[in-house]
Amino acid sequence: MAPVALETPTHINGASTPVSISKKAHAFDPATQHLPDIDPSKLTIKLSHELATVPAPETLTFGTIHTDHMLLLTFSPEAGWSAPSIQPYGPMSIDPMASCIQYATNIFEGMKAYMGADGRPRLFRPDLNMARMKRSADRLALPPFNEQALLELIKKLIMVEKRWIPSAPGCSLYIRPTMFGTRIGFGVTPSTSATLLIILSPSGPYFPGVVRPISLYAESRVRRAWPGGTGGHKLALNYAPTLRPTREASQQGYDQILWLFGEDDHLGEVGQMNAFVVLKRDDGSLDVITPPLDGTILPGVTRHSVLDLTRAHSPENAIPGLPADLVLHVQERYIPIAQLVEYSETGTLAEVFGVGTAAVLVPINRIGYGEEGKEIKIEGGANGFGPIARAVREELMAIQEARRPSIWSVPCDEE
């Protein structure tokens, strides 16, 4: 599809006002509440004259294709949030001195839409995404916004693009809400203007092919995040520094990095996923452990959901696929890499897996550590899945695809 010039707002009748970015410097005051917030009632829609062909689900990879339309709105310190616009997908014009280019004032979210078994487009726990995005915006002193109003707009965009939602297992419509500062000029000050953009991408599994275990390299030389930093927020600036270490891990034959932190090198995230460890107890019960939210760990929606499911597991509310009388001791605590090695050597270590929106849940089968090329090996069942990983993944996907009734699955076709 040919590139489309970006305009905002774009009205249904075709009239439009080009984007203009004020070059005045302003001191953005979060206490200025009289400026207009996001207002879904002012949404305008301009549909593309040329619609792209939706690719077959089996050809989809993660994050490589975009849909026909996007949603756009802007914030200025004079007028607040503009009228939102759904318009043809196209390139954007940004001033070279914009805050987002010069100072990385960029945040985003990762969400998915699923075509439910009932034929209705659905989101998975979107309130958690909106709350996290609002926290991320506040961390970078970007303009505040009404998260429920933004969620309403996301639903409307999905309904416009619902033909793009793949129905094949493991596929979904990935949603990328993004906000970036557009204040013009040098000087390390909050951005007084911003653009909020939502684009969609039909996607296959994050790891192509049959879901399989992945390998990790435990990285102790480079730190992904630290207490008091920004690791607990979804900021673009958190991701770029991970690229070179990840490439180096790949050159050593590993799929992702297990980030470590602290004097004891305790476990952090698995690539861009939250880490979970399952340990066996002598009485047959299991410990399900994930690192605590200490500011170095992103509070993932999938992490939250895994904790909710495992904490609720009981004879009255059993996770399908697990024995109803299996006792799970769910904990948020640190696990030093040396302790993980000890668990492996004593036969206590049962499972390690990573969870996140893009990948849902993937098992880990080996972890390299130290300079001597040592490895922790984790045995799994069929396709490398242990019983907890398999049951939790299936339950999450059943809820996401509305094969299992749940308040976590939110229809897009109702207010």
UniProtKB/TrEMBL annotation:
First-tier enzyme category under EC: transferase
Keyword set includes Amino-acid biosynthesis: yes
Cofactor: pyridoxal 5'-phosphate
GO cellular component: mitochondrion
GO molecular function, one term: L-isoleucine-2-oxoglutarate transaminase activity
Chain positions found as N6-(pyridoxal phosphate)lysine: 234
Pfam families per the UniProt record, alphabetical: Aminotran_4
EC numbers for this chain: 2.6.1.42
SUPFAM superfamilies assigned: D-aminoacid aminotransferase-like PLP-dependent enzymes
Keywords (A to Z) from UniProt: Amino-acid biosynthesis, Aminotransferase, Branched-chain amino acid biosynthesis, Pyridoxal phosphate, Transferase
UniProt GO BP: L-leucine biosynthetic process; L-valine biosynthetic process
Catalytic activity: L-valine + 2-oxoglutarate = 3-methyl-2-oxobutanoate + L-glutamate; L-leucine + 2-oxoglutarate = 4-methyl-2-oxopentanoate + L-glutamate; L-isoleucine + 2-oxoglutarate = (S)-3-methyl-2-oxopentanoate + L-glutamate
PANTHER family per UniProt: BRANCHED-CHAIN-AMINO-ACID AMINOTRANSFERASE, SUBGROUP IIII AMINOTRANSFERASE
Family: Belongs to the class-IV pyridoxal-phosphate-dependent aminotransferase family.
Name used for this protein in its record: Branched-chain-amino-acid aminotransferase
Provenance organism: Calocera viscosa (strain TUFC12733)
